[in-house]
Sequence to fold (236 residues):
Amino acid sequence: MGGAPRTEHVEITVKAPRLGCDAIELLGQKHARSELYRSDSVTPSLTSTALSFEPIEEPESDTILANVGHRLPWLLALMMVQSVSGYVVARYESLIQQHVIIASFLTMLVGGGGNSSGQTVAELVRRLRTGEVTSAIFWHVLAKESAIGLLLSIGLGLAAFPRIYLMQKGATSLDAFAISLSYTVIILMANALGVCITMLLHTFGRAAVGAPPVVQVLVDVLGISLSCVICSAILE
Fold:
């Protein structure tokens, strides 16, 4: 049987991927930005800000010459005071010749006193500046720092003995004891002296400038003197 050809229709459905809300929002933002920059009414422009540098005017009291004028008298006076240590060493020259080990540890002795007093002065100057400490409580501060110095001196003195006796060639137990005792006394003296000098200079408004070098020089001179006196009493 003949007939017309039969045509079949096939429907193909293509499902587009679903975009989440975040993706749609992101596409919208990109489209908005592209439209904004294509618009003739909006033209992005960059503006530059000019930076100007003006010379800093220092106060007259803070110039180089003013600082030199403030510091030089202190340093000249302290240089003369420090010369006293030379006379002390000359006075005990025979002791040092017989016990050369004393000369080997003089730097450690005076350096330890300087380190201890330096910590005391720095802390005290800071507290005076902030108002935590005043001259009215001088004796309280002195007692507290002396107690701190006593504990530090005992600890450092005990540590110095094996350092000298075990690590220094030719050192006797008596040498180590004399030098360790000197170290102990110097640390205690340095802490107390740091408080006294700092508080004294604070009354004249010179604690920050004068206290560190003054205490350092006095500790050096007194440290050498105490070392020679103590070692002479024990070793001779």
About this structure: Residues 90 and 148 are 33 Å apart (CA to CA). The two ends are 148 Å apart (CA to CA). DSSP finds eight helices and no strands in the chain.
